[in-house]
Design the sequence.
């Protein structure tokens, strides 16, 4: 998804790939992309005994972007 977003920004604005990536990072309150490890940690929680009470939820792993 990030690669496609970068491609779209390049096509529409003519920015470099580095500038496009920086623009995407600026959209996050954390100023960075979410890591695969952060997504994996949530997946592990949901598949664990501790996550057994969580169901029917939409959980955004987006660094707060939805709330921004």
Sequence:
């Amino acid at each position: 998804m990030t690669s496609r977003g970068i491609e779209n920004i390049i096509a529409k604005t003519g920015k470099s790939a580095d500038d496009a990536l920086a623009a995407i990072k600026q959209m996050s309150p954390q100023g960075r992309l979410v890591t695969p490890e952060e997504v994996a940690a949530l997946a592990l929680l949901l598949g664990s005994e501790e996550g057994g009470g969580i169901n029917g939820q939409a959980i955004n792993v987006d660094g707060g972007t939805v709330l921004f």
The CA atoms of residues 5 and 46 lie 28 Å apart. The chain has a mean pLDDT of 93. Residues 2-13 form the longest helix (12 residues).
